[in-house]
Design goal:
Extracellular Endonuclease, Chain A; two-stranded antiparallel sheet; 7 helices; 11 strands; about 40% helix; disordered N terminus; seven-stranded antiparallel β-sheet; single chain
Length: about 280
Amino acid sequence: MKMRFKRLVFVTIAVAVVATASLSVNAKRKKNNTRSETRTERVERDDNASSNIRNLTEVKINSNYRNTTKRYDAMTVNFNTAYRVPNCVSYVLTSEMVKVTDGPNAEMRRNYKFNRDASVTGCPEWWEYKKSGYDRGHMAPANDMRWSRQSMSDCFLMTNICPQDHNLNGGSWNKLELKIHSWAKTNGTLIVATGPIFNGTSQRIGQNNDIVVPSGFFKVVLDPSRNRAIGFIYDNHEGGGGVKRHACSVDDVERVTGHDFFSSLPDNVERQVESTYNFEQW
C-alpha cells in the first residue's frame, strides 16, 4: 500500500508539472502572438499614415496646361510637356530628413550635375539654359534633398528646373526655401508644392526657343498635424523684402495658378486651411 501510494503521489506530481509547463508555454505563445499582432497593426497604421501623407502631395493641375506626372523617389513632378518646365513639384519634408541634410553625412551638391530625364516628353537638355540670362532654378530645392543619393540625383533632373532670375534665385527665393527648411526642423512633417506662374508669359529660351520663362513662382506649405497652411507668390525677379511680405493663403495661389492643392483632405478641413493663413504661427 505504501508503494502504491508513493507511485500515485509521484504520478500526480508529474502530471501537475507537465500541466503547469503546458500552461506556461501556451501563455508565452499567446503573449508572443499578441505582440506579433501589435507589431503588425502598428506597421499597417504606419503604412496607412505614410500613404495618407503621400496623397497630400497630389496636385490637380490646371486643365488648360498640358501635363504629365512623374513620381520620383522623393518628389512628384507634374511636367508641362508644351512649356518644357514643370507645372508643379511637390514633396514631403520631415524633421528626420532635415536632420540628415544638416548633418555631416549629407550629400554634397558639388557632386551632382543637371541631367535630362529622357523618359519625360519635352524635358530639355541642361545646356539649353546656357547664355539665356536665367538660372536653372530648382523647384524642389537641393538643400531639402541632401538626405539620399537618389533624392539628390532626382532633384537635379531638368524636370525639376525652371528658368529663374539669378537675383531671385540667390536672394529672396532662397530665403523662403531656408525658412521652410527650418519650419520642417521644428514642426515635423510638411507638404511642400512649388512651381511657376505663367500669367502673361511670352519670353522663351532654349535651342528651339520653346522653354517658357515663368512670370513668377509660387510655394504652398501644409502642416498636416496642425491643420494649417500658407502660400507664397513671387515675381520672377528680385523682389526684395522679407519672406512675410510674399505670404498669402493657399486659395490665393489657387486663383493665380488654377491648380488644386491638398484635395485629399476632408472638404471642411481643406476649406479651413486654404482660406486663411497666419505667418506668425509658423
